[in-house]
Specification:
There is one protein chain. With 417 residues, this protein is an alpha/beta fold. It has two domains: 2-138 and 355-415, P-loop containing nucleotide triphosphate hydrolases (Rossmann fold), CATH 3.40.50.300; 159-318, RecF/RecN/SMC, N-terminal domain (Glutathione S-transferase Yfyf (Class Pi), Chain A, domain 2). It contains twelve helices and 15 strands. The protein has helices at 36-48, 130-133, 148-151, 154-168, 172-195, 200-244, 282-295, 297-303, 324-327, 330-352, 369-380, 397-402, and strands at 2-11, 14-20, 24-29, 72-81, 96-109, 115-123, 126-128, 139-142, 249-254, 314-319, 322-323, 357-361, 384-389, 404-409, 412-415. The strands form three sheets. It has a six-stranded antiparallel beta sheet with strand order 2-1-4-5-6-7. The chain has a six-stranded mixed beta sheet with strand order 8-12-13-3-14-15, with helices on both faces. A three-stranded antiparallel beta sheet has the order 9-10-11. Helix 11 links the parallel strand 12 and strand 13. The longest helix has 45 residues, at 200-244. The mean pLDDT is 91. The structure holds adenosine-5'-triphosphate and magnesium ion.
Length: 417
């Protein structure tokens, strides 16, 4: 797949940008604070339909536009999808050209006096909901701060799983939103029961209604994650071995509700244990999860929250038997994330038949000369890659010859050569 045209208005520091994009590697070169990362952020928005780091998305709207009556930021993209018979794809996005437009409006005031944000998504000129459009445009993003996926909190890792899976599996995003809707209802009920004494039979009866729904959505999530981690590990381990010249990378999925219970007496999964649970049916997971919820009723009423399920899942990255989140060197962690991102490209290609657009922010920093060379070799073959740098010298002359070099300065782009 390929982005053919991008136009931005009032997005971050870009008041206005209109640009045709070629295939292959594009190098975005420029000093600090010129808008390189913002460009990648805009393109990634088309795939994730949310920003990768704005906790408050209204920050995406250009400061200068805040004084307008209705400040609005727009990202409009034309892209082309390849023909991919037999692959699981978003039903809106067949082969050929499509247009995706995001409009972010800053309007009114919320309870804290801040502005509210309204988001409109238009796919081929028709207004759509985010979950309908997810997966229509595919991109894989690498940011230096993504080492958080390995070193940060379990929530960072769950977000990573969700963003990756929802791009390629059309059923995943709806399962996530159903799961969180049901959990909110179920938690409210648990709190209610905690406040007024209710008979055990009434509790079981009322909670069971929500247990069933939670187990159905939860099982779909667990099954997708089990499979994803296993498939991704196979690809990432191979790439990591090549980049590090021999180190072993393992991805260990630790589901909070585990459909494959551990052997008697063993509390934690050993990090070198082989992968389990790849062939468990959806029905088995659903049933087991539902029974587990039932067993926990009185404990969960005491705690007032749902204590088990995909919202508590964990994923660990292990190299040569050590947890990289705890023991990895900077370079090791960065290399592991890179291997993961390169594996994601293959995985998305495998599922959807599309080679996703690759977005790499300052990717060569902190890599030694061998790792840089290996990485650039891989990138030359990419369908379309946008990569940023402050320093063109980091790239080999051979690579630069095969890439397009764009200078980003004062939110304008000029092409070299
Ligand atoms: N809503 C906004 N309106 C206007 N400017 C913004 C907005 N949000 C961020 N900026 C500014 O946009 C500029 C570009 O940021 P960006 O992160 O894209 O730079 P960069 O080229 O990647 O720089 P670096 O090399 O330091 O990573 C920064 O000066 C930032 O403060
Ligand atoms: Mg940057």
């Amino acid at each position: 797949m390929r982005l053919t045209h991008l136009s931005l208005s009032n997005f971050r520091n870009f008041s206005r940008l209109d640009k045709d994009l070629p295939g292959g590697p594009i190098l975005l070169v420029g000093g600090n604070a010129q808008g390189k990362t913002s460009l990648l952020e805009a393109v990634y928005y088309l795939a994730a339909l949310e920003s990768f780091h704005a906790t408050q998305e209204r920050q995406l709207i250009n400061f200068l536009a805040w004084n307008e009556p209705i400040p609005v930021a727009r990202i409009v993209a034309d892209f082309e999808r390849e023909d991919a018979p037999g692959k699981s794809v978003n039903p809106l996005a067949g082969p050929g050209f499509h247009r995706l437009e995001i409009r972010l409006y800053r309007e009114g005031e919320d309870v804290n006096g801040g502005a509210r944000l309204r988001k409109d998504i238009l796919f081929d000129e028709t207004k759509r909901k985010a979950h309908e459009v997810l997966g229509a445009f595919n991109a894989v993003l690498f940011l230096p701060q993504m080492t958080r996926v390995i070193e940060g909190s379990p929530e960072d890792r769950r977000r990573y799983l969700n963003l990756s899976l929802s791009q390629a599996l059309p059923q995943y995003a709806p399962a996530i939103s159903e799961y969180s809707r049901v959990m909110t209802q179920r938690n409210a009920l648990l709190k209610q029961f905690a406040e007024k004494r209710t008979s055990a039979s009434q509790v079981d009866q009322e909670l069971s209604f929500w247990d069933e729904k939670l187990a159905a959505a939860g099982a779909a999530i667990i099954q997708a994650r089990l499979q994803f981690v296993q498939e991704l590990e196979r690809m990432a381990a191979r790439i990591y071995r090549d980049l590090t010249r021999g180190e072993v990378l393992r991805l260990v999925y630790q589901p909070s509700y585990d459909p494959t219970p551990l052997p008697e007496g063993q509390k934690m999964l050993r990090l070198d244990a082989p992968l389990r649970g790849n062939r468990i049916s959806l029905d088995t997971i659903r049933q087991g999860f539902q029974e587990c919820l039932l067993r926990l009723h009185s404990e969960e009423i005491f705690r007032g929250v749902t204590t088990v399920g995909p919202h508590r899942d964990e994923l660990r990255f292990v190299s040569d038997g050590h947890d990289l989140g705890l023991f990895g060197s900077r370079g090791q962690v960065r290399t592991a994330i890179l291997a993961l991102k390169l594996a994601e490209i293959e995985w998305i290609k495998d599922k959807t038949g599309q080679r996703p657009v690759l977005l790499l922010d300052e990717v060569l920093a902190e890599l030694d000369a061998n790792r840089r060379a290996d990485l650039l070799d891989r990138l030359v073959q990419s369908e379309q890659t946008l990569m940023t740098t402050t320093d063109l010298e980091q790239f080999s002359p051979e690579f630069i010859k095969q890439a397009r070099v764009w200078h980003v300065q004062h939110e304008q782009i000029t092409e070299q050569g």
